[in-house]
Amino acid sequence: MDTQRRSGEDGPVPFRSSRFFCVGSNWYFTTREGFDSGPFASRERAEIGLKRFLHVVRLLPEEYH
């Protein structure tokens, strides 16, 4: 569980779990908004997918965050 406070958070740190999960032999990642992305062949591929997703999100104009 992640116990670090994120930017803009006040009060106690909410419960957090891993963004990655496995169904059968397929790996997925989930976003804060509840979007699941996958399947990926391995956890490592899912981690790369998440990094790419976050990179694209950072390129969006602020009103889309």
TrEMBL record:
The organism that produces this protein has a lineage beginning with: Bacteria, Pseudomonadati, Pseudomonadota, Gammaproteobacteria, Pseudomonadales
Q: Pfam families from the entry? A: DUF6316
Stored InterPro entries:
DUF6316
Q: Which residues form the DUF6316 domain?
A: 5-58
Q: Which domain of life is it from?
A: Bacteria
Put simply, this protein is called DUF6316 domain-containing protein
